[in-house]
Recover the amino acids of this structure.
């Protein structure tokens, strides 16, 4: 545990990508195979659940620390991270560190699910006593997640590739998909040179960069494909060994969530992997994202939900044909393969191709771009015809050309402290516009979009202009105005404003505007009418 | 607050009406008793000041050579209109004091900022028995529990040694008044030459002139050969990390000494290579010890986690109230302090002024602070507007 806790703290401390890769590489070169596999499990977001109730853990910790629950909560609000709060509150550890390995600690945690609450308590208290403060923090992270330490999968893959001297595309593929430490070994998963039998394993997604400057900067229009950028869920559909798997971008196996697409198992040949977008689709055309949102996250897809928010798959790439990885073929070749597969499918509205836009001049595309919202698209994807299918976000071959967000000027009215890197700073804001009765109506929450310096300045203002406290939330003197951008707008009965905006974010701080000059709810409703 | 209270919280100071004296006023008054020389407690513009004698060099440096200042020793009693005052060691920084106020058998203590651990430079804290205790609560949450000083100091020693072996400069940030003297008195001085930023250099020189036993520092100037920084220790005030001044030390490792470094979030936000948890304020256990040892039946909690700590005391059988002051506040006050350190005019500073990069000063003035100041005339009337 010492070694892993040290890795964790060191990773946490540096912002430098190369330093992070080097730290992980050193770990992968020196840790035991078992530990490496567990570390990889954590780094790729596969932390197993140990079925502990966070509220109980908080109570046990408060009891150990000898403080009342409300003081525990106040401490938690200041620290912003539960695992860290507990590690700071527990009586100072007398030990220097634990000799148990990361793997042994996972086995220790693995005993929790079968225990009574009383046993769980003893089990966890025992652990806390055996660990140093840093280790307690890491242990709590293992116990309760969320295990975020600013290491992207790309970085883990790079470190692993360097440590094992394997091509990073190969590693990226190997760490994806369904696996768990109990069912495999580091040898099998990462070092296995032969064909892997993991039928469900998806390919890493190729992601686009936002276009810089004018589209004409891309050169000859004839070298490029353009498609609408759909506002749905990026997905890979895999059909191998007579089994269908649907993966979404967050690396989640979501096959059961889209029963409409299950018929693809009768259409696709074995050994096919498609890349595309799952969108809500009605009357032969895509619907806004919020329709799809009504069914995401639902455990039970009732008949009603399926009827009200049906989906379709808009395919735009193919990565595997007859079990052969074709990511190294050109975009044009892959498109041809994709069209062949689609042609063989019977007529229906659920498996579609994302159409290529017909254009010879950039000016045509520029004009069409203004019609994106009418087409329920977020703009264009522009792909180089000669490009291969790469791993992660790479510059040069795939570009996204998004429409400008909708925006209004709004007043900051509530603030809450952030967590992790931003604990102790007010970074979570609620914004309001003026209602008809001259009162401010909250309509959006936004966390991002300001520079660190601006965050500091806003925080300074908030701390001196608090009107009321509601738990962690502060009512702030309505004075600061920000331009809030968002991607979509819809009616909502759940919100006071009657409106829900999608992806709200701060575009800029309007220091030039007074609160009275912020926009009105009426203006917001006007935007809603325009895009309904 | 009933009018007959010996000390009152008037929104301008901690005020003793009978003596017509203000403790740490944040607006100019006739008679100001100053607990210590940090800029949020010692503000510019009062007619007469009274402070411990060890505070004098800094107070004159910051508030002006010609201020009317009376100094006293610890425990020395002075009587104003029948009220007996005395200063007692607070252990926060050099010259810091708790103000004991006695009238008709009732004793109040305004403790200013304080810590219990002996830092080998400031006169160590001593508990003072009282009826009413006024305490800070900068780190008044149970998550704050400091390690013993010697442990932190050997962390700094090791960090410097490690950087030295890698031929890197060790740039160590911390408050110029208090923290830096404490560091100099407790780390192992691995080199004869220790480099310092102008703000720290000036202060150190002033204290040395006044007879304090501190090592001589070497001011970093534009002319200093950059090669000399390799493996050296460079002392800097907080917030130089966002300046161009720091670039001249490359390759360097950046360390920061502050109680706030106890939290990962704060540490990561500062983006320093090494955070050292070192504070001149009481941590949670010591705060409770101090309250207990004061024997007070009533406690007023000022700057910091005021409402939280007041509630905690009330639940534990000690009557407590929260008081809003202009001290410390919830955020790190350090940036303001740097501005004031730098803008306080002194001969030593003037002499080397050209050699300081302007960016440091500019970077430490976020604009909302300015507008805040403009809006409240009772706010900070400090050294920003003052040039000697």
């Amino acid at each position: 545990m010492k070694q892993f806790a040290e890795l964790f703290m060191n990773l946490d401390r540096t912002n430098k990508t190369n330093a992070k890769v080097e730290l992980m590489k050193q770990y992968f070169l020196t840790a035991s195979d078992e530990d490496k596999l567990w570390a990889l499990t954590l780094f790729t977001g596969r932390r197993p659940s140990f079925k502990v109730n966070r509220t109980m853990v908080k109570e046990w910790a408060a009891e150990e620390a000898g403080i009342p629950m409300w003081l525990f909560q106040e401490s938690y609000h200041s620290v912003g991270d539960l695992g860290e709060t507990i590690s700071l509150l527990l009586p100072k550890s007398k030990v220097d560190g634990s000799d148990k390995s990361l793997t042994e600690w996972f086995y220790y945690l693995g005993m929790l699910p079968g225990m009574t609450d009383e046993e769980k308590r003893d089990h966890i208290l025992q652990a806390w006593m055996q660990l140093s403060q840093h280790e307690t923090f890491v242990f709590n992270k293992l116990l309760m997640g969320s295990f975020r330490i600013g290491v992207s999968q790309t970085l883990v893959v790079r470190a692993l590739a360097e440590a094992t001297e394997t091509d990073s595309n190969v590693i990226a593929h190997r760490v994806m998909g369904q696996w768990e430490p109990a069912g495999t070994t580091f040898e099998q998963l990462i070092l296995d040179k032969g064909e892997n039998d993991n039928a469900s394993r998806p390919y890493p997604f190729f992601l686009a960069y936002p276009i810089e400057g004018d589209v004409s900067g891309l050169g000859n229009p004839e070298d490029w494909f353009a498609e609408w950028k759909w506002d749905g869920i990026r997905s890979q559909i895999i059909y191998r060994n007579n089994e269908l798997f649907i993966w979404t971008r967050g690396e989640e196996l979501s096959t059961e969530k889209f029963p409409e697409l299950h018929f693809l198992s009768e259409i696709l040949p074995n050994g096919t992997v498609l890349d595309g977008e799952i969108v809500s689709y009605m009357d032969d055309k895509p619907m806004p994202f919020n329709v799809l949102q009504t069914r995401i996250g639902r455990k039970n897809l009732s008949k009603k939900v399926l009827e009200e928010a049906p989906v379709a798959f808009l395919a735009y790439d193919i990565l595997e044909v007859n079990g052969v990885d074709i990511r190294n073929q050109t975009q044009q070749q892959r498109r041809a393969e994709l069209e062949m597969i689609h042609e063989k499918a019977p007529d229906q509205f659920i498996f579609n191709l994302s159409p290529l836009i017909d254009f010879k001049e950039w000016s045509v595309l520029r004009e069409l771009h203004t019609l994106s919202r009418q087409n329920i698209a977020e703009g264009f994807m522009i792909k180089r015809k000669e490009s291969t299918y790469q791993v992660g976000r790479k510059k040069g071959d795939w570009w996204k050309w998004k429409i400008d967000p909708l925006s209004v000027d709004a007043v900051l009215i509530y603030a809450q402290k952030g967590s992790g890197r931003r604990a102790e700073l007010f970074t979570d804001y609620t914004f309001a516009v003026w209602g008809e009765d001259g009162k401010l109506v909250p309509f959006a929450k936004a966390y991002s979009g300001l520079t660190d310096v601006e965050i500091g300045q806003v925080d300074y203002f908030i701390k001196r202009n608090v009107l009321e406290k509601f738990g962690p939330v502060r009512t702030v003197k309505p004075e600061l105005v920000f331009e809030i951008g968002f991607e979509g707008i819809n009616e909502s009965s759940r919100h006071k404003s009657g409106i829900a905006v999608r992806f709200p974010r701060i575009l800029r701080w309007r220091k030039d505007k007074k609160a009275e000059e912020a926009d009105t709810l009426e203006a917001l409703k006007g935007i809603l009418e325009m895009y309904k | 607050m009933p009018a007959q209270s010996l000390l009152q919280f008037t929104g301008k100071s901690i005020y003793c009406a009978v003596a017509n004296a203000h403790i740490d006023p944040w607006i100019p008054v006739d008679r100001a008793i100053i607990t210590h020389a940090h800029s949020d407690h010692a503000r510019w513009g009062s007619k007469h000041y009274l402070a411990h004698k060890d505070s004098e060099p800094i107070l004159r440096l910051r508030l002006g050579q010609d201020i009317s200042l009376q100094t006293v020793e610890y425990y020395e009693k002075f009587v104003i209109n029948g009220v007996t005052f005395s200063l007692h060691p607070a252990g926060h920084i050099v010259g810091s004091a708790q103000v004991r106020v006695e009238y008709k058998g009732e004793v109040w203590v305004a403790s200013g900022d304080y810590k219990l651990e002996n830092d080998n430079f400031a006169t160590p804290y001593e508990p003072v028995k009282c009826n009413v205790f006024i305490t800070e609560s900068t780190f008044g949450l149970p998550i704050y529990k400091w390690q013993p000083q010697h442990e932190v100091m050997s962390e700094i020693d090791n960090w410097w040694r490690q950087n030295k072996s890698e031929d890197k400069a060790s740039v160590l940030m911390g408050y110029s008044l208090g923290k830096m003297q404490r560091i100099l008195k407790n780390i192992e001085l691995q080199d004869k030459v220790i480099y310092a930023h102008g703000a720290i250099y000036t202060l150190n020189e002033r204290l040395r002139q006044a007879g304090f036993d501190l090592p001589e520092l070497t001011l970093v100037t534009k002319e200093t050969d950059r090669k000399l920084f390799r493996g050296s220790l460079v002392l800097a005030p907080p917030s130089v990390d966002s300046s161009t001044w720091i670039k001249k030390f490359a390759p360097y490792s950046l360390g920061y000494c502050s109680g706030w470094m106890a939290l990962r979030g704060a540490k990561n936000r500062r983006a320093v290579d090494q955070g050292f948890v070192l504070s001149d304020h009481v941590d949670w256990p010591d705060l409770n010890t101090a309250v207990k040892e004061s024997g007070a039946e009533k406690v007023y909690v000022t700057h910091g986690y005021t409402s939280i700590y007041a509630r905690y005391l009330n639940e534990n059988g000690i009557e407590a109230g929260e008081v809003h002051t202009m001290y410390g506040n919830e955020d790190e006050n350090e940036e303001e302090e740097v501005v004031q350190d730098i803008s306080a005019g002194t001969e030593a500073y003037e002499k080397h002024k050209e050699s300081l990069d302007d960016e440091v000063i500019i970077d430490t003035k976020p604009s909302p602070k300015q507008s805040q100041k403009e809006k409240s005339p009772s706010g900070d009337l400090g050294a920003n507007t003052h040039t000697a």
Chain B touches chain A through 31 residues (CB under 8 Å). The first helix of chain B runs from residue 56 to 63. Chain B has a mean pLDDT of 84. Residues 8-144+281-386 of chain B form a domain with the Metallo-beta-lactamase; Chain A fold (CATH 3.60.15.10).
